[in-house]
């Protein structure tokens, strides 16, 4: 009887070196699966709406929105490819084989790194727009932003192969038991520096500078609003739109930091979480949830996104010349 019970707790009862299953209540497991599946589906739909909106409507083809489009693509891939496999990783039993395990980690590594770099580019975009407004239109063009986005994705893909290539040579070599999905990240210290410490530091420094300049400009506009002439009122309007964009993207950056910092801090502290525990599942899924939150921020702060979603849902985009619709 004891032997049968022990075999029932194994991922692969016929193999002695098999990993053990978690004794998690079935109701709790079902709740986790349903919740994570809903978040995954919601992430795919929302980011697909962002991608279609910015890609289809010509009025939205601005340098800043191109960066948002790149971020939405990485968030879409997280919802489509990363989240479903992350649901499987809430249990220690991996049934898809060692090779699929090694290949799987390339996708989140690429998408998460691309998201981090996109956040840096967004911070640089707002920094130039607020701190150097007269140079913004000449320095930040659609062509230059597209080149930066392309380099961002090339860098994310190349770095993934650099840090994870060893796992493809002998898949499963780092598993402690049969049915586990573990990999080794080469040069983990360099990884933390390149993809966490340096980017996060750059984002924080740039947005602190943007915040200081934005506050000073807002005060200046309020103090001189009564003396503004017709010609300068156009300048004030442009500044207000840039400041509003900076506030919105500042919220995006702040939420990004709140979602990503806990998992990195746990990694830096060396604290080991019990696999399958609620805390471990929360820390693992928190960075991924940022991909679902970003479109919600756009919907709350950007009227053009709400209007474009309405046109998409009504299938207006199927009509000729729909790309010329006015959204701003």
Automatic annotation (TrEMBL):
It is found in: Cell membrane. GO terms for molecular function: trace-amine receptor activity. It comes from the Eukaryota. One of its GO terms (cellular component) is plasma membrane. InterPro entries: GPCR_Rhodpsn, GPCR_Rhodpsn_7TM, TAAR. It is a multi-pass membrane protein. The chain crosses the membrane at residues 30-54, 66-90, 102-124, 145-165, 185-212, 249-270, 282-305. Keywords: Cell membrane, G-protein coupled receptor, Membrane, Receptor, Transducer, Transmembrane, Transmembrane helix. Residues 46-298 form the G-protein coupled receptors family 1 profile domain. It holds the Pfam family 7tm_1. SUPFAM superfamilies: Family A G protein-coupled receptor-like. Belongs to the G-protein coupled receptor 1 family. PANTHER family: HISTAMINE RECEPTOR-RELATED G-PROTEIN COUPLED RECEPTOR, TRACE AMINE ASSOCIATED RECEPTOR 19P-RELATED. This is G-protein coupled receptors family 1 profile domain-containing protein.
